[in-house]
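Work Package 3 committed the consortium to producing structural models of liganded targets before the mid-term review. Because experimental data for this complex are still outstanding, the team generated a predictive model from sequence and the ligand definition alone, so that downstream docking and mutagenesis planning could proceed in parallel. The input record is reproduced below exactly as it was submitted to the modelling pipeline, together with the SMILES string for zinc ion.
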Amino acid sequence: MAKCVEIVLPVQCVGAYQDVNLNRIIPLAVHGDDAEAHRRRSFSICTFGSLLVKGSFWDTKILSFCTDVSQCSSETTHQLELWLTWSLLELQLGEFLDVDPWGQPYPPFLKGRSGKICGEWKAVLVAHKGDERYMQKSYRPLSSWVSDNVCLVCAASQTQEDLLYTQFGPSALHRSSMTSTKKFIQDISQVQTFTALPGWHIFCVQFDLLHVCDLAIIPECSASALIELCAAGVFGTGANDERLRRANVLFTRACKLARVRNRGQMFSMKQLFPAGPNSYPTLVQKNFNGSEAVVMAKWLETICLKVAEDNPQDAHAGLRAAIFVNLVAMRQCMSPANNPGRHVTLLPANVERLRRACYLFKAAHNSLALEAVQQEKLFWKVRPKYHKLDHIVFDQSQYLSPVHASCYNDEDGMGKIKNLARITNPRKLGLTVLLRWTAYVCVRWVRMATE
Ligand SMILES: [Zn+2]
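The resulting structure, written out as tokens with the ligand in place, is given here.
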């Protein structure tokens, strides 16, 4: 557990934790998401685990609850999260509580569920993460990505000129409007669950690299680039679908070289414009995961750089190459291989490089987006989700590696729990899934211990 000392606490927290033995504190991350299954069923799944461990989902995460979304109201989620927060409070204290979440005597305490939970060990919530919809469900803020104020942690706006969310970098004006912990608890969160934990800090609200970058920014930028490169004849001549088919062959080859399975559909105009021809292009999320997104950015970096080199007078080609060069550079700064000796944080030099690459990416992307608007073309879409990249890079990356803190492992686990839920009787789904998960994990751990 010597790795614990590597955790960098936000300056505001240092004083508050002076009398705590950090070598006996487990930093926890809570993750929540909805997983869609067959027949339009979807399950709401919440897990938690230590931020310090890596490995299989079964060995690193604890299932908190799994519910059938169609059978639950927002109040159900609220009640479940109240119990979860209560459990987190117990872990934070290191002792079992004698009262329930409503302050009433808790019978199991009198029956022996009392005393210390795990000796001197305690656990503290550090990160609360999930996709945008889950965070909305969990904190129920009055604003969302479609309202004027698009951000949970600052005043970035869709319409207020001085606070436009499209501004970027360390000197963007919305950066001076960061929400304080007090304001978040009093004005933004409309429920008191996680925010009721003693010591809860706005830093706990973490934006996730997987959802922001791999499942939104890279697919959307790649789709715009693919259409442009097709039109420029980079993938040969013929109908657009034929050119895209050739592009797909090249991409599949790049995936093979990177030892990543390309599970996506064949590129086609229909696939790149799922909302119809008069919409912004994107690669549909279902066919794209984190690994494929990383290969896609690298593959397009090579192609776009070659096109830019062959056309030195073409500023547009240069900016398009800059987008992928900086997306790849950002990933390299965050890669564990480039941060030797670091477990959950980045080397300071890499934090600086990451910030520079993010700034250059946003500058290039905004220029292309502006050009597209001026030419009345639907390319290089900018949307509120892109704003979150600035929070990941400029606010979170100095404390926690965005790759380590992201939801890759959690999303993998979503599929496993979803499969458990699908074969469970809907009437007793919540309890049965928890029992099956417990049984599976216990058998797995016993087997591992005896092998
Ligand atoms: Zn913001």
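Reviewers should note the following from the model. Residues 142-188 form one domain. These observations will guide the Year 2 experiments.
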